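Q: For a teaching handout, I want to show students what a protein-ligand complex looks like in token form. Below are the inputs, and the small molecule is fructose -6-phosphate. Please produce the holo structure.
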Amino acid sequence: MCGIIGYCGPRRAAPILLEGLKRLEYRGYDSAGIALATPGCTTAGEGADSLGVIKARGKIKDLKALVPPDIAGTTGIGHTRWATHGEVTDANAHPHLDGTGDFAIVHNGVIENFHQLRDHLLAQGVEFHSETDSEVIVHLLARAYQGDLVAALTATVSLLKGTYGIVAMYRGEPGRLVGARNGSPLVLGIGQGEMFLASDTTAILGYTRQVIYLEDGEVVSLTADEYATSDLMNREIRKEVDHISWELESIEKTGFTHFMEKEIYEQPEAIRRALRGRLDREYATGHLGGLNLNSRELLEVGRIVLLAAGTSYHAGMVATYALEELVRVPAVAELASELRYRNPLVERDALYFAASQSGETADTLYAMREVQRKGGRVLGICNVVGSTIARESDGGVYIHSGPEISVASTKAFTSQLAAFYVFALLMGRMRHLSHDQGLRLIEALEAVPGQIEAILAHTEPIRALARRYASCEHFFFLGRGINYPVALEAALKLKEVSYIHAEGYSAAEIKHGPLALITEETPSVFLVPRDGLREKVITSMKEVKARRGPVIALAVEGDQEVARVADEVLYVPEAHHLMYPFLLAVPAQLFAYYCALERGCNVDQPRNLAKSVTVE
Ligand code: F6R
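A: Here is the structure, written as tokens, with fructose -6-phosphate included.
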């Protein structure tokens, strides 16, 4: 979603802002802009002595073309916008200026009471230049300013209802930026004689690794050499400096054409990292350091509820099957967006997980807070270190996938599975699983990265299949049991990157309605590994064949029976039955990727989508 970058220091700000915005492109955006303490360079229509603002709809390269290469100014702010209020226009792009052109702001989030604030400002004669909710902020800031920018920002945000990450600058204090957050991330980067403020560490990773994550209700003021953090009562807050361990190359394509491709190929290593140090062969169990629960508390867990959205929800669904089988406690996955508004019953012995790659998804975050408010204990399963869900949860596990840049989530899915499986192993060994069963599970998990490598070494059949079928407009993905959620995930991947309509279903359910849609032009992809439901899935394949629907199977190497029924087969290696979700997800991801290429889609930035969905 929207991205923010700010810079104060000795260097020219514009190239740093543009570079930061480029790094934030992956989040999804439709327009972009920068503001500099450089009068006279504005495209925003203000006077020649206002702050310089250059903004435009379209890509960062379009913005770059408008920025004079030698433009001065060593303090500035930049923004990528993903429209929520108002269309995609130059005027609605950020930064926004007040009427004098002295104040500029960028804003992520949604101001819920902007109509009232706008009406109030209009009544006072303020002129608006955009349709955005954000513009009210800059007018309020200008009116609140009485010689102290932090005080003005604090007074401004106290009037706002909704979510925000805001960075502001004032022409009268050209070497200073101020920022505030509520529900939309902001991170301060501390460099050598320079400071950064961003919505996402990827924007500043090339410049510094020393960061401070702001919390909701905190305000920051920075100059090139100093920063200060305070709360909304203007009381100073001392914050810990964190160190980012991600390498710069982890946010670059390193020879791959797209981030999606790169991240699919990173899965073996990502899963190894998610498992590293967490499998204990001696006791045949799992170790998860950050759960903040002792053995007795874990034993008392009578129900497990997984909260998530999108791909993370599908990973959670897979995990429920593994948890019920291995731990023998009821486990359910809930769409965080639905649970939040359902007034959920939070049982005493329930343990909740909030699973989120970004750790910033609003639906998941608010569902987590709702459960916590009712006394529930929520553990996070996150990728982004220091993200809001990771910090606000009552404990949890990092999946250590490294940055996931592609909007379509791939490696986070399989790494989340790995983390959930370690938890299932740990809980299972405390209850019903024998040492021997635990050991077999460890071996099965450790084999997964190698098995995925084997799949990734022979992708030509998947590519050829995509060539043959990418022109179809409708697909079904069908699986059973633990692979049913993988069918949902496969359908989601195909639709989001290739814009092909795809539905995921339980293979058993198609006879309850969807069979009506089967035609010669509607292929069905069946997930049919060697497990207890294989025969049932083969029966469903035959039902589709009988209606002349093309049948594509993802099956286990050497499965001749499946090959006889299906029109096309892709093979995965033989594995422990619980490991097939990992192995079936990978060819499904590649199939979606190759179909998108065949159809000429912009794989890393699918239309209308954003990487981290921080609004409801
Ligand atoms: C799909 C995708 C989304 C996310 C969803 C949740 O490829 O990326 O469906 O999975 O928005 O995001 P996180 O995991 O960051 O909470």
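A: Two things your students might notice: Residues 309-312, 356-358, 361, 364, 408-409, 492, 496, 612-613 surround fructose -6-phosphate (CB under 6 Å). The two ends are 12 Å apart (CA to CA).
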